[in-house]
């Protein structure tokens, strides 16, 4: 025969069990939250990072491989098109071009020279057409990817033509300011634009662009820095610091090189390539977490002094 507990005793027992269950659930909830944060994608850690500390999102690079690159190419736009093939836009008046390049050898397989009055800038590929902009003009050009023959010119509505990239549907553009433009590739009209900022300061001189894993990556002119930008709202997602590449070339006796410029992404094999203006090498790189001192370097080198001083 089972005796029933007194009402007061049963009530106390229920309260004890309830407290015990709550005590057991607290560490479980904390553990689940930690796991969620650990596996959360990089670009979802705060959709607006204008006033956040990005120190944990600063990366340096490791060299995976080196490839030959035309040392006379004043690289302004770069993209990977599969089968170890690159397309490149070069600048300088009288020397500007669009070219098809073999990644492994650096050999220029096909070249289409621009008129002497144009200074070539950013380049991107959408479907079977290459889109190229030019410096100090609102005129750009499209090319047939098969033979680089000019298809037709176009007019864009950015203040200038510096960089181009695409997500396969729209075009993203830069004009040397802190503005990231979104454009309709059929009309070249601006459908949206955002000012890119870091801790309230504008990130100016956005140059060559590349679309990588739902982010827009931008070379920052006259620096060894790449800014990672959200195309949704222009918020800054992180920095990549690459001074070791230019410094290594200078130490090797390549004194005639210009700045870092040119980002290409192999989405199939997840390979990242970079080069610079008049660089004799193109690099495949991978990212690694930057050192604790990288934040100071970033503010000194990736942002202009006028930005830091307000």
Automatic annotation (TrEMBL):
Domain of life the protein comes from: Eukaryota
Family annotation (InterPro entries): QCT, Quino_amine_DH_bsu
A GO MF term: glutaminyl-peptide cyclotransferase activity
Transmembrane domains' residue ranges: none
Coiled coil: none
Name of the featured protein: Glutamine cyclotransferase
Source organism of the structure: Arabidopsis arenosa (Sand rock-cress)
């Amino acid at each position: 025969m089972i005796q029933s507990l007194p009402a007061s005793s049963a009530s106390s027992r229920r309260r004890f069990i309830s407290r015990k269950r709550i005590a057991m659930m607290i560490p479980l909830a904390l553990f689940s939250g930690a796991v969620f944060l650990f596996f959360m994608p990089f670009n979802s850690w705060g959709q607006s990072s204008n006033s956040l500390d990005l120190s944990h999102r600063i990366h340096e690079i490791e060299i995976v491989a080196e490839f030959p690159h035309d040392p006379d190419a004043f690289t302004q736009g770069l993209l990977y098109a599969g089968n170890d093939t690159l397309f490149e836009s070069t600048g300088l008046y009288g020397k500007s071009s669009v070219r098809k390049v073999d990644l492994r050898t650096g050999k220029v397989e096909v070249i289409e020279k621009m008129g002497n009055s144009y200074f070539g800038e950013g380049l991107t590929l959408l479907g079977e057409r290459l889109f190229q902009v030019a410096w100090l003009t609102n005129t750009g050009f499209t090319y047939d990817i098969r033979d680089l023959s000019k298809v037709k010119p176009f007019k864009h509505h950015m203040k200038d033509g510096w960089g181009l990239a695409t997500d396969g549907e729209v075009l993203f553009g830069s004009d040397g300011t802190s503005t990231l433009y979104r454009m309709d590739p059929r009309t070249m009209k601006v459908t949206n634009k955002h000012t890119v900022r870091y801790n309230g300061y504008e990130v100016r001189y956005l140059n060559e662009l590349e679309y990588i894993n739902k982010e827009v990556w931008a070379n920052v002119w006259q620096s060894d820095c790449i800014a990672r930008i959200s195309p949704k709202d222009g918020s800054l997602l992180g920095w990549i610091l690459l001074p070791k590449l230019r410094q290594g070339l200078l130490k090797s006796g390549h004194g005639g090189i210009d700045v870092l410029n040119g980002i290409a992404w192999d989405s199939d094999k997840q390979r990242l390539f970079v080069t610079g203006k008049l660089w004799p090498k193109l690099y495949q790189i991978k990212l690694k977490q930057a050192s604790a001192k990288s934040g100071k370097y970033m503010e000194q080198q990736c942002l202009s002094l006028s930005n830091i001083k307000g």
